[in-house]
Design goal:
Oligomer: single chain
Helix content: over 70%
Largest sheet: none
Low-confidence stretches: none
Number of strands: 0
Structural class: mainly alpha
Number of helices: 16
Strand content: under 5%
Radius of gyration: 25 Å
Shape: globular
């Protein structure tokens, strides 16, 4: 019996009381994460009058679409910001994956002469950086990226932490014998990378891709620093502006100079309008998670060991 009990023993097994406690804590943590999202969604469908009377409620007195109707009537700026954010997110993520995967693969090759030196410089940038002022001067005075879409893409193209994760992923999952076999068969470095390394590295690339998608989509700081043109304002920067005032969206609306626009501005739903825009901002990134889900856990686990 003792042998049978030892067979069923697992290092991850816990007693029933601890299991109940841990499940309870996970349930509480899940509710802490989900309830604010549900509240934002409910408030976005609540009328401005009810919000002024009763405040935020999970169960509003009446269902209202006035916030979304207001946003769609002033949709020129929101649609433009949406397009900019999608272009920046898709283009930036693809560019980041191409650059970082090639850089990380090069660092992972043991036969690369300058691998250790470049790895040191890559790690060094994680500890020390030039700071905000030098990077701003380089991007504006030297590269002239201000008020261009490249100002929202290029500063986040290479992340040293992601490069080290990818380098570890390549070094631990891609056997050097595969590369040598491909060389014997006559394949060159570019063919090896595109035909062998990339297809075998989908979990790692998908994980870094998801990180990049979230980073680009949620960023508003680069817009604050470099963008003055309303046509290049990303959706997160627009949302940040709306946190303080809805004037920006009213001023840049197609209806701003019309009688309907003036009436629309007077009747604009402030609180529910902010929540409705927050919901619109969350939707694309929520759809991105299932696409990366099947690769995410494996890629994150394999790349978690740094060295």
């Amino acid at each position: 019996m003792a042998v049978a009990r030892r067979k069923h023993y697992s290092i991850n097994s816990v007693s029933l009381p601890w299991s109940i406690i841990m499940h309870g804590l996970m349930l509480i943590f899940t509710l802490i994460c989900i309830l604010p999202v549900i509240l934002v969604l409910v408030v976005s469908f609540t009328s401005e009058q009810d919000l002024n009377t009763y405040g935020y409620q999970f169960f509003p007195k009446a269902f209202s679409l006035e916030a979304y109707e207001f946003l769609f009537k002033t949709g020129d700026q929101i649609l433009q910001s949406y397009i900019i954010s999608i272009i920046v997110t898709v283009g930036g993520t693809l560019l980041s994956l191409v650059v970082m995967s090639m850089f990380a693969y090069t660092l992972s090759r043991k036969d690369f002469k300058y691998g250790k030196a470049l790895s040191f410089f890559t790690f060094f940038t994680m500890l020390f950086s030039g700071g905000l002022v030098p990077s701003y001067m380089v991007n504006t005075s030297l590269l002239h990226l201000d008020d261009t879409i490249w100002a929202l893409i290029l500063p986040y193209t290479v992340n040293a932490f992601y490069v080290i994760i990818l380098r570890t992923f390549f070094a631990t999952t891609i056997s050097h014998d595969i590369i040598e076999s491909a060389k014997i068969d006559g394949a060159r470095e570019w063919t090896i990378f595109t035909r062998i390394i990339v297809p075998l590295s989908k979990p790692g690339l998908a994980t870094i891709g998801l990180f990049s998608v979230i980073g680009y989509w949620n960023d508003w700081f680069l817009g604050l620093l470099y963008i003055n043109d309303a046509k290049l304002v990303p959706i997160q920067y627009l949302l940040m502006k709306m946190q303080s005032s809805l004037d920006f969206i009213k001023q840049n609306s197609q209806l701003a100079n019309s009688a309907d626009g003036i009436q629309l501005a007077l009747n604009s739903p402030t609180e529910s309008g902010r929540m409705a825009l927050t919901v619109l901002v969350m939707v694309p990134i929520l759809f991105a998670y299932p696409f990366f889900q099947k690769f995410f856990v494996k890629g994150l686990t394999l790349g978690s060991v740094k060295g």
